[in-house]
């Protein structure tokens, strides 16, 4: 088994060799390492993308807007990913960000995972029938584990999720009532003697 | 009195970094301190009469076990090479996480001797190999087998029975990634598992030499005297492989140097020095003279440094014993200022290391700060502006900006990775091919390039906007934002100039390992000795903390 350290180093060097700058190659190494840590096929997808890149022209996207559509065959998932990371402060203000035509979307998604950590918000991505939730770069939830990842996404929709509870107030109260069963009802003497502080602060 | 930390623009110059010496902060010393109450055992010792076979040594505490698995091999003299390009070694080692099963040992037997072309697993933590110093090893075997102890003069000239040629960790060749074990308190210090491997290998070399001597003449053989063993360490040959490490791990480098600088600052701020502390300091300086006089090297470069070190340390001792009063307030600050004024860089850093000896209360908390969670500082703060980045560069790289990289001599060399061995190398860009595949280690040149580019941009442009059309500078943009927070993260020198002495970079790292007796064999590789004078595993429970200054005494 290859260690994540080996994967990161090899990805960085391979990315440099296909023409990315050293700084961008460092980003790619970090992102693919993260995918492999989460059990997703980062090395496989990157390898295929670099082979495809020899014969096909993919488009760079340096400025992310709410709606982005590639005029050529597809966007380069790496440049879109790095731009997304770099522009996170402006991008997170968009309600929904749409991309049309991205090659090897899994590679792009690896940057979304890191973007989720930087922004401090969960990110929801949807393409075709697939849904993915990025949890602050701690894990990735999706509904197609063990499936081959598509090598092309016609449309991807991305949404930053507000930091809010996943439960209702009544569900919380119900749980809290159970928690309260571990507390002791205070008698007058307990009120007098069991707390450290005085009963009045007017001294 | 408040003392400022020393200026990174002075301390991070290569000539200064190349003058660093081991100290209480060094990793092999902090390793011994951490593992002194662990249970040491020789679990398996299955060598034939010539000393070839397998052995396993372990350190154990509660439920945690680390096991060194050793494979000693028969190799021909002409197969023995110090260089990393060698393919066979007298012995090969791995540190296994836990107790290895029979299956593990069988698996490792097939892989460990192959080193870089073998495959390890997440159950292995470090990997290494070593060659005998044949002259010394054979002499010791010969002497012991005849019932005599070996010639101490010969032993002190070399200092070890074996020397390692590489010690690998952190995920190399399938070894466990650092993240798998990073929460273990006992290894919360850089290179602690590498230090453990080398320390246990040292014990293996003693056991092997005793074993071979015994089988050579079972009736007359004696064991190597423990005092002699204690004065032997493990040698190490180190080439350029280490140099890029300190460039590629800026926050880690910062944490090493910052700990050293913080220790010095806190010692200089002590108002009244206790008698026992000044006595210990002076005793260590005096005893350390043997380390200097027994420091052998054929390198003219190092001989000059040793000569001026010896002369300056003697001058310092004369000053401290005849013209200095430790009752004076802030005595160590006065000493430091005297050193800066009167002695060479080698001597300043030598005495700075010894100043730490009395102060466990200062050094021990600092040891815990010497690792780094590097990923935390990887992301570039892209919402900041070009103006802010320019100011950082002006403040943090003032001398770098003065270098003219249009001049050939300032742009003479390039760093590359050898295809044959996947190891870093340095070559003349005007004489050798391959500079188009240069590694991103010319930080000074690229920082200057970045600065010049920033000058032509609008101040309020964000870094995100700047990077969208300047991706070739991304690696140094990242570094500039790191050095803003970590002042000692960057070598403040030109790493591609004609006059670069790469062994300065190696020596910096090796001094933090705790190496002694740097012996440059060229400007690109050197030999060192580790653990010479260190307590043996059976002596760890109660050992003299200043052992490093008592070698051969």
Explain how this protein is built:
The complex is a heterodimer of chains A (203) and B (553). Chain A is an alpha+beta fold and 203 residues long. Chain A has one domain (4-160). Chain A is built from eight helices and six strands; from the N terminus they run H-H-H-E-H-H-E-H-E-E-E-E-H-H. Chain A has helices at 4-17, 22-37, 42-53, 77-86, 88-91, 105-119, 169-180, 188-193, and strands at residues 67-69, 97-103, 123-127, 130-135, 139-142, 152-160. In chain A, strands 1-2-6-3-4-5 form a six-stranded mixed sheet, with helices on one face. The mean pLDDT of chain A is 92. Chain B has a domain at 36-239. Helix content of chain B is 41%, strand content 14%. Chain B has helices spanning 8-11, 14-17, 27-35, 102-111, 134-145, 152-158, 192-216, 226-230, 243-248, 250-268, 275-293, 300-322, 331-342, 345-355, 360-367, 386-396, 443-455, 463-468, 474-485, 503-513; strands spanning 39-47, 53-61, 64-72, 91-97, 124-132, 160-168, 233-238, 413-417, 424-428, 516-520, 526-530. The two termini of chain B are 38 Å apart. Chain B contains 20 helices and eleven strands. In chain B, the strands form two sheets. Chain B has a nine-stranded mixed sheet, with helices on both faces. Chain B has a two-stranded antiparallel ribbon with strand order 8-9. The mean pLDDT of chain B is 94. By secondary structure, chain B is α+β, with helices and mostly antiparallel strands. The A-B interface holds A 1-6, 13, 20-24, 26-27, 30, 62-63, 82-83, 85-90, 114, 118 and B 121-122, 170-179, 375, 378-380, 382-383, 417, 440, 463-464, 467-469, 471-478.
